[in-house]
Structures are given as structure tokens and as C-alpha cells.
């Protein structure tokens, strides 16, 4: 136990939704110091240890069981790498923690990509991934795709991840408003996922935590239907984190629940975190590594018919499904 402990309270939940017959989402909560990954009482409320805590949401795609397999492979690979590589790393620093987290996501991509190559029946399998690590009073996030992370501080909610999606690209370029993007028929087109390509660009960001901060991580089955004000209202009004997760998922299902729905809610406290004073607000903040590249530059959009060698991505036409296609990679 440290002299100035950080206390983590956390709960996560996933739901198949109202339209699908199986769940392709996965999530993970893990104490990297004790090497436990569960939602047992010792995890739901624990003191942040020397190696930190891991939270992860993955939203699979690929049809049949391929999406479910991809999201499970992602969470398993990231957890195992953080336990083995980071857990045994002699250099216990902020930079090393962030590096290992980013490295874990890149290794997960390679594993899924190689698995799909070896199993042609799963060609096109992939998953979004938002993996966050709490270490030393700060929060580090790695982002691939369009699952999301939000932070609530002093009664305000801010999205602290940036969607790697076509709609986000068009909003950033000023070609669409956020309201137009939210109802576009192309809103499910993402620019990156783990698995379809041999390499990915991981968006790595960092937030200094303040006492009372609440992290919400979710798949787009939640964020597509439950907007920021609703998330803020439900989480701040809930008596506990279990109720908060249930309320978020119930609202998404009340609004149709066309996709799988997953969320993690974590609250941070203890004397090891400073009180908020209103002088700084959460935002999407790039965390540069000393020995590797970290970028939030736009992921290239590969136009159909581009010159050979521009991209190795080849996506099969979507198969007909009872429910709308969950995700599409560009080009489609």
C-alpha cells in the first residue's frame, strides 16, 4: 500500500441488444499488479497498484463468429502482453507503461491478421479497440476504430477519444456537421480496425486524473443511441456503478438496440489524486513516446480503384444478415 493511494471503482457490462442473435463485443477490467481480470469484489473497488489497471472495450466485425473471435483475441492478447511484458518490465515509468500499452494493441492486430490469413473462412475479421490504462494518477488511452472513451469531471462530460471513422473525417474537414454525421447512412464506416491490415496506427492519448473523475468506455452500440447529455445524466444520477451501467444499456435498448451494447464505468478517488480546480478540462491529448511514433494524423482513406500498392486492404462484399451490417471498413 502506498502512502497516497489512488482508489479505483469500476464496473462493466455487455448486452446482445434487441436485434442480434450473438454478441461480438468483448470487454476487460484487470488489476495489472495482482494480475486479476474479473469483476469480483476485489476488482470492483481496489487500490491502484504499482503496475496499474487496465480497461478495454472491443467491438468485433466479420459476420458469423469471426467478429466475436476477433474481439476476444484482442482483449486476451492485450491483457497477456501487459501481464507478461509490462508486468516483468524493470523500467516502471509513465513512458514505459504507455509504450507497452500501445505495443500490446499492435501485437493484437498482428495476431488477428495472421489468424485470418491462416483461416480463409474468417477473412475480413476485425475489431475496434479502445484500451485504457490507469497508472500513477494518469489515464492513457489507445484507440483503433470507433468505440469511445468519455470523462466526466465537475458535472461536465467530454469525449476523450477520436473516432477513426469516415464521418469523423468529414466533420473534421468541415464537410458535415456532427448532427448530419450522426444520421448518415455511412456512419458505420470505419477507417481502421485490428485485423484487416498487417499494421495499424494507434492513437495514444493521456489525461491527468482528478478526484471524482468518471471514465465511461463503450462500443458504438451505446454511443450511437445514447448521447453525451444522456450519459452524463444517467451516470451522475445513479447510486452506484452497477446501476449506471444498467441504465445506459437499458436506454440503448429502449431506443431500438440494433447492435451489441457494451460499457465500462470507472470512478477515481483517494488521496493520490489532486482535487479538480476547474483550471483544466479533459480533452483529446496526444501523448508522444520517446522511442516510437504516436500520431493522430488522419488515417489515409483508400479510394476504390487506387493505384496498386497504395493499400493492401481488400474487403469482401458484405453478406446479407438479418440485422444491418455492424461495421464496414473503407473501401467497402
List keywords for this structure.
Phosphatase 2c, domain 1; six-stranded antiparallel beta sheet; 332 residues; 14 strands
Short description:
The chain has 332 residues and is an alpha+beta fold.
Name the helicity range: 25-40%
Strand order of the largest sheet: 4-1-13-12-8-9
Tell me the fraction of residues in β-strands, as a range.
15-25%
Give the N-terminus to C-terminus distance in angstroms. 52 Å
| Total discrete domains | 1
> CATH H level: which superfamily?
PPM-type phosphatase domain
Q: Structural class given helices, strands, pairing?
A: alpha+beta
The third-level CATH topology is Phosphatase 2c, domain 1
Q: Give the class-level CATH name.
A: Alpha Beta
- Taking pLDDT < 50 over at least 5 consecutive residues as the criterion, the unreliable ranges are 292-325
Outline type: globular
Q: What is the CATH architecture descriptor?
A: 4-Layer Sandwich
Helix and strand element order: EEEHEEHHEEEEHHEEEHHHEE
Largest sheet: 6 strands, antiparallel
- Average of the residue pLDDT scores: 88
Number of strands: 14
Give the count of helical stretches. Answer: 8
Our Rg estimate from Cα atoms comes to: 19 Å
